[in-house]
S-adenosyl-L-methionine-dependent methyltransferase (Caulochytrium protostelioides), 221 residues
Amino acid sequence: MHVYDRLERFDDAIGWDEFIMGINLKRRNALRDVHGHVLEVCGGTGRNLPYYRPGQVTQLTLSDASRTMLDAAREKQLHEYPRLKAEFKNWDSQQLPVADNTYDTVVDTFGLCSVPDPVKALREMERVAKPGAPIILLQHGRSRHGWLNTALDKTAEDHAQKWGCWWNREITDIVREAGLHVESCDTSLLDTTYLIRARKPLPAAPCSNRAGSGDTDQRDV
Ligand SMILES: C[S@@+](CC[C@H](N)C(=O)[O-])C[C@H]1O[C@@H](n2cnc3c(N)ncnc32)[C@H](O)[C@@H]1O
């Protein structure tokens, strides 16, 4: 059984911690500009639902590998955010059953700690984003403080058993390995929390001969 299928009271378990750490404000800030058809992967119980603006987000596709988490998200949307047009998909974010270039924005908050292969998941996120689309990541992982990393490493195994989350992953290495085009990366909470704004590149413009002498070929760069 998937760890997250056991965490039926996920919101109760982490709500207070998130409040104390100001995570709700970080979610709001991360999602302020998301627009159009948004894909959220590893969407869990829909903790980001309050921050999607119905006028700005025309459709939300919230996906997660755990049916239990998805059911909680669906209930929340139905009762608390009925104006938001949303669908819920039981998808593995490492292998999304979606065509290339589908979404206007792709979001993942606190999912890279939990997927077995986070690099693969990021590559999928970029694949399904439209050219030029923002990819918003709010994540937690290793810090640049040695003493804190030692503590994270020591407790990582137990934490993962209980929560399904590896809190000592090297987020910047993962993003670099996936080849994402990062526009900004801000850290907080002793550098354990990362807000990364990336963007899928636009296709390269063809190189043309403006002089028009007729003796050159046109080629993709
Ligand atoms: C720490 S929770 C974060 C939930 C939510 N994004 C949030 O910000 O509260 C991680 C989520 O990742 C999901 N998950 C883990 N592995 C996954 C995978 N391979 N594909 C999709 N979702 C996955 C879990 O079911 C869980 O809901």
In short: The two ends are 48 Å apart (CA to CA). Residues 4, 42-44, 47, 64-66, 69, 92-94, 109-111, 114-115, 165 surround S-adenosylmethionine (CB under 6 Å).
